[in-house]
Amino acid sequence: MHNEPLAYRMRPKNIDEIAGQEEIIGKNTALYHLIKKGHVPSMLLYGEPGIGKTSLAHAIAGTSDLPFISLNATVSGKKEVEDVVAEARVTGKVLLFLDEIHRFNKLQQDTLLPHVEKGSIVLIGATTENPFHDVNPAIRSRCGEIKQLKRLEASDLLGVLHRALTDQERGLGKQSIRITEAQLLKIAEGVNGDARKALNVLESVVIASDEENGETIVEDWLVDNLIGRIGLFSDKKGSHFYNLLSALQKSIRGSDVNAAIYYLAHLLETGDLVAVNRRLLVIAYEDIGLAAPHIGAHVLAATEAAVRLGMPEARIPLANAVIEMCLASKSNSAYKAFDAAVRAINSGNTGDIPPHLRDTHYAGAAELGHVGYQYPHNTPIGSFGGWIDQQYLPDKVEGTEFYRPVQAGDEVKLAAIYERMKEMKKNKR
């Protein structure tokens, strides 16, 4: 009887047993050939939990035959790092796998990095966070390879499950198990590309199933029950969460209703309603803006309703808001105009406020020359209201156009008014 979990026992022993990740460690990659020839470069492995970072490091160690040491940066101190350095001095070279490398502190770095630089320690770091945001630059500079692992496809996971069922030494091959291909596919499709979860589900299903005449018989309801919500990956403040927020915004901006609803559902399942509401409000004004100005008010109402309702009812107003935003006309002209004005100011394109626009609510303003302002409301112009041609920008930036209208939705009318006023100014000057 095995004491270790099935997922631990089935961890690949060498790089030929790695499932998926063909672009990173497939037989046609340079990394595969380097490792096969005994050269292991220091590298960073980046990806979500369960994606195979630890398995890949163990497989590389099994292929290279280097002395292998595994540490976790959250619990390892200076002493553990010094032990690795001492081992490298004795053996000449060691392969160090450092999990949660983004938590590596400066003291650990100062002890380890010189040995990584001269090659006596080969460092494989693993992180769930974006290494360009969260891994110290000193570590990144010494890791020539930064590999982003992808979640496995269902076909890759089916191969992992079949191997576990047939492997008599490490897997379940010595047991008689009746499990259908449809049940295995359901597991493979229900774990969100996570091989460890797939093997955990398989092991749990086999343990929980009844036996008949020495054969374990797996039933559909048991598979459904054990998969449950296992496919959901939640890291409210991690890189994947912000990737989901980014995907939601880009899907709305791209008017893809189905993708936007998918990412909204994933985000709400993580439970961070505040972050979702905030992003939706940003999208309403950043990506839809003047083309459909009513959307901002609609989204604000939906997010406020979501806060009052809480989950799961919050999904209802938010789903309405997301679909309306997807199908609304889009314009980013307003914030682009603002950003252009900021760039002008920061580059020194500033000047004195025209005297006639300055404050006059005090005695002596006229003596300072704060005169000449013409009140637009006194000059009606059609159904627009009041307008008169006078200078508003400082002399230095007079005539600069920060606003570039987009011909979309309601902004078409605003753009027409804007162009008409430009023409009127031109004719009067």
UniProtKB/TrEMBL annotation:
GO BP: any one term: DNA-templated DNA replication
Molecular-function GO terms, alphabetical: ATP binding; ATP hydrolysis activity; DNA binding; enzyme activator activity; single-stranded DNA helicase activity
Annotated InterPro entries: AAA+_ATPase, AAA_assoc_2, AAA_ATPase_RarA/MGS1/WRNIP1, ATPase_AAA_core, DNA_pol3_clamp-load_cplx_C, MgsA_C, P-loop_NTPase
SUPFAM superfamilies (alphabetical): P-loop containing nucleoside triphosphate hydrolases (SSF52540), post-AAA+ oligomerization domain-like (SSF48019)
Classification via SMART domains: AAA (SM00382)
Record key words, sorted: ATP-binding, Nucleotide-binding
Start and end residues of each AAA+ ATPase domain: 39-151
Family the entry assigns: Belongs to the AAA ATPase family. RarA/MGS1/WRNIP1 subfamily.
Name of the protein this chain belongs to: Replication-associated recombination protein A
Source species: Sporosarcina pasteurii
